[in-house]
Automatic annotation (TrEMBL):
Ranges where the Signal transduction histidine kinase internal region domain occurs: 2-56
Species in which this protein is naturally found: Paenibacillus cisolokensis
Pfam families, A to Z: HATPase_c, His_kinase
All copies of domain Histidine kinase/HSP90-like ATPase, residue ranges: 76-176
InterPro entries linked: Bact_2-comp_sensor_kinase, HATPase_C_sf, HATPase_dom, Sig_transdc_His_kin_internal
Name assigned to this protein: Histidine kinase domain-containing protein
Highest taxon in the source lineage: Bacteria
Amino acid sequence: MAIENKQDEISEMLVELSEMLAYTAKYQHDEVPFGEDLNYLENYIGIMKKRFVDKFTVHTELDEALYRYSVPKFFLQPFVENALIHGFEDIEEGGEIRITGFIRNGVRQFVIEDNGVGMSREAIGRLMNGQHEKERKDSIGIDNVDKRIKLLYGETYGVVVHSEPGAGTKVTITLPA
């Protein structure tokens, strides 16, 4: 119906949403192919770009070797969501998110950086302990991602958040190669 009524944007959003739902239903395991999780993230970003027109851009730089590995399901999306909902909350445009991924010394690292409002050490502590200022029942949770990584791969791996008020946020996710 959206196509017939020349509602291209709605049509695109429905396709992205249906792919996200298919991903959610298809993979019942803790780990998924990296490319599949990245596709989920790209669909999420596509929908959010339509919702927040001109508010943000996303740049990715990912080592091709990463596609040979599995990753924890939904391991990048919560950090992008946090940047959009909290980091860019008070801006109209100019938000930037940079996602990089590489392999070095037997370790996979993924870095999500934004130029948002940043947060204090206390806010980072609450975030990493699952204590959010705005309780959200629909969120996977950043602390949840860290706990799942540690359960899957060991205490050496996980999530580290660096941020300062007014200086954006940098999240580093470390996984074994």
